[in-house]
């Protein structure tokens, strides 16, 4: 459970700090906006939708910005921007002020996330990247758990002061996060020696983060001549991979929205069970995320994890459907089994995506490629909730088989799409020679 000493441990600690602040706010965010600010539930929902749209549209240009100014700098600026926004939330005077602030907060969060990926990929050796990202995800969940408890305590005060704590705690957490990140090494570690024989790596170490990526000494970087971020969208194999990610991440919609709705409307499960189901997910994410990434250190291993993730969601769908025809402890057991399967999808998907998103793109375009992946895959986040809810619940249950078919199609498409991505040059650069075996 303890990350390796050095930068991996610092990154994991940073995630825990971020999670405590974020978990504190998320626990009562809707309560804050409705009772403290005085917005209606519909206005809050519109604001969250606007924030989602900003993240969808802004991921590519803000990812490109992170490539240009450096991952660490983008990460710090995004965190400070988010802190300033949360500090202003208590002064929100109406709906349009709320829309302005939540738009700025969404943009800051997108920039910070882009910077985090760019910095982490540049600062760590290839064989350390996925494992370190797994530790940061696990520690983020630990932080969220602690923050949720603090948020519940603040709500228990049943006062405006308690609601104010929710927002200010996250603002403070983001400031601490910015300070923490700013003290990380300004100059990324050298690219792994194992990458020196790939077309993406040069024989010399990359320069300090203050230089632009096009100042790299690799011959291929010299030919790139500051490629346009919008050119990423013309990389059709990668957009196909991003679409595959988007389909597989529908499991998050199933876990967070559809299965809870199914449980309380179509089964005899007691409502307090929902808390237990979320706890199962949290415990698995903390305890098993690092272990689940084993094998995600090669193209073949990541493809295998993608297919396992798809099959886990395929299996979860009929299990949930069956829970609508059972009673008592059998229903509870079936819903718990479905959550285990959906969480397995999350864990395997994370490891595979971390590897593919850091190894496939040219190093000086990781932010743009990650942004493109979020933008393309984010389309499913927009249409997923309504579509999956209709299929699962409004059909009476038989729609679960159609949902399973969607994940089965993703399983069948995973290997061909990854193979297509692997053999396709990016901006004139030959495909990376990604090792098929794990590093020793």
CATH topology of the largest domain: Growth Hormone, Chain: A
What would the principal axes of the Cα set say about the shape? Answer: globular
- Helicity range: over 70%
Kindly give the count of domains. 2
How much is the radius of gyration in Å? 22 Å
The H-level CATH homologous superfamily of the largest domain, spelled out, is MFS general substrate transporter like domains
How do the helices and strands follow one another from N- to C-terminus?
A: HHHHHHHHHHHHHHH
- Given as residue ranges, the uncertain stretches (5+ residues, pLDDT < 50) are 188-224, 432-440
Global structural class: mainly alpha
Treating each run of at least 4 consecutive H or I residues as one helix, how many helices? 15
Reported for the largest beta sheet, the result is: none
| Rounded mean pLDDT score | 80
- Strand tally is 0
> What is the beta-strand fraction?
under 5%
Q: What is the C-level CATH assignment of the largest domain? A: Mainly Alpha
CATH architecture of the largest domain: Up-down Bundle
Tell me the quaternary state.
Answer: single chain
- Taking the alpha carbons of the first and last residues, their distance comes to 21 Å
Organism: Paractinoplanes ovalisporus
InterPro entries: MFS, MFS_dom, MFS_trans_sf, MFS_Transporters
Subcellular location: Cell membrane
Membrane topology: Multi-pass membrane protein
């Amino acid at each position: 459970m303890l990350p390796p000493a050095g930068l991996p441990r610092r990154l994991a600690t940073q995630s825990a700090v971020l999670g405590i602040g974020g978990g504190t706010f998320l626990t009562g965010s809707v309560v804050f906006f409705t009772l403290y600010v005085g917005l209606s539930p519909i206005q809050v929902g519109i604001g969250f939708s606007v924030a989602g749209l900003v993240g969808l549209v802004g991921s590519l240009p803000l990812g490109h910005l992170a490539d240009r100014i450096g991952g660490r700098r983008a990460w710090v600026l995004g965190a400070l921007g988010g802190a300033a926004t949360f500090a202003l939330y208590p002064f929100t005077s109406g709906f349009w002020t709320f829309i302005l602030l939540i738009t700025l907060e969404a943009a800051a969060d997108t920039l910070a996330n882009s910077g985090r990926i760019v910095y982490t990929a540049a600062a760590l050796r290839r064989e350390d990247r996925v494992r370190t990202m797994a530790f940061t995800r696990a520690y983020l969940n630990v932080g969220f758990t602690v923050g949720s408890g603090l948020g519940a305590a603040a709500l228990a005060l049943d006062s405006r002061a308690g609601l104010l704590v929710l927002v200010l705690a996250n603002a403070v957490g983001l400031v601490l996060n910015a300070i923490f990140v700013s003290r990380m090494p300004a100059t990324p570690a050298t690219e792994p020696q194992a990458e020196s024989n790939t077309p993406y790596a040069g024989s010399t170490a990359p320069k300090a983060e203050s230089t632009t990526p096009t100042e790299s000494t690799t011959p291929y970087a010299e030919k790139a001549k500051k490629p346009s971020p919008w050119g990423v969208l013309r990389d059709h194999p990668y957009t196909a991979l991003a679409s595959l990610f988007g389909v597989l991440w529908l499991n998050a919609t199933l876990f967070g929205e559809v299965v809870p709705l199914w449980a309380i409307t179509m089964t005899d499960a007691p409502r307090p069970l929902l808390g237990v189901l979320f706890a199962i997910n949290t415990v698995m994410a903390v305890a098993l995320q690092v272990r689940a990434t084993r094998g995600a250190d090669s193209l073949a291993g990541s493809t295998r994890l993608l297919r396992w993730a798809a099959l886990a969601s395929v299996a979860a769908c009929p299990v949930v459907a069956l829970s609508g025809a059972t009673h008592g402890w059998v229903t509870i057991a079936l819903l718990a089994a479905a959550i285990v399967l959906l969480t397995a999808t999350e864990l395997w998907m994370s490891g595979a995506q971390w590897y593919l998103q850091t190894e496939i793109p040219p190093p000086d375009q990781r932010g743009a490629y990650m942004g493109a992946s979020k933008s393309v895959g984010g389309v499913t986040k927009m249409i997923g909730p309504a579509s999956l809810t209709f299929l699962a619940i409004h059909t009476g249950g038989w729609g679960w088989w159609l949902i399973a078919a969607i994940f089965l199609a993703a399983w069948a498409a995973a290997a061909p799409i990854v193979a297509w991505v692997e053999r396709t040059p990016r901006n004139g650069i030959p495909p990376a020679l990604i090792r098929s075996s794990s590093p020793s």
